[in-house]
Design a protein that fits this description.
This protein has helices at residues 2-13, 17-35, 41-57, 68-100, 102-106, 108-125, 129-139, 145-152, 156-173, 178-183. The protein is an all-alpha fold and 184 residues long. The protein folds into two domains: 2-100, Rna Polymerase Sigma Factor, Chain: A, CATH 1.10.1740.10; 108-183, Orthogonal Bundle (Arc Repressor Mutant, subunit A), CATH 1.10.10.
């Protein structure tokens, strides 16, 4: 077996594709079973592919006297351990993010309502000053058009026009959020 591995490694080092195919066929199943002790089966195939790709890309630097079996299994084990470390790091990041934004996840309505209210406030603040004043007096102070007209010194029709234009502008600016606004 050792002599066979040495011959195959010498052929692989020379760039023989058939030698690579033999190695792949001979070791794939064992490497897969070995890797499955560390990681999920979905990761096993990717890890073995990476190791085999590395083997082919670096065939010219291989030392035929080394144990091919030890090389492959060590490489797979190291890649598995790296994958485990990566998954653990990802889990820690997810946990930190969850803790940081837990309120949003626990009460998404609170977050959505706050964001929608911010968007509405911003859109109202961007209205022309006369339009904004008439709109706010009508919608937030519950004043009638006549009361607003007396207060601002303009006609009833001017107040009606300013409020209707405000609503038109707000509908355009908030068109993407109207279903959520209506829902809230």
């Amino acid at each position: 077996m050792v002599n066979e591995d040495r011959e195959i490694l010498e052929k692989l080092k020379a760039g023989d594709v058939q030698a690579f195919d033999i190695i792949y066929g001979q070791y794939y199943r064992g490497l897969f079973v070995f890797a499955s002790q560390y990681v999920d089966e979905s990761d096993c195939e990717e890890i073995i592919q990476d190791v085999m790709l590395w083997l082919w890309e670096n065939h010219h630097i291989l030392i035929p006297e080394l144990s091919l079996k030890s090389l492959l299994f060590s490489a797979v084990k190291n890649k598995c351990l790296n994958r485990i470390a990566h998954l653990q790091m990802r889990q820690r990041v997810h946990e930190r993010l969850y803790e940081k934004y837990k309120e949003m996840f626990e009460d998404p309505d609170f977050y959505i309502e706050g964001e929608i209210l911010n968007l509405i406030s911003k859109a109202i603040s961007e209205l022309p000053a006369d339009y904004r004043e008439a709109f706010e007096l009508n919608r937030f102070e519950n004043l009638t058009y006549n009361e607003i007209a007396e207060m601002t010194g303009v006609s009833f029709k001017t107040v009606a026009y300013r409020i209707s234009q405000s609503l038109r502008i707000l509908r355009v600016k908030l068109k993407d959020y109207l279903p959520l606004i209506l829902w809230l």
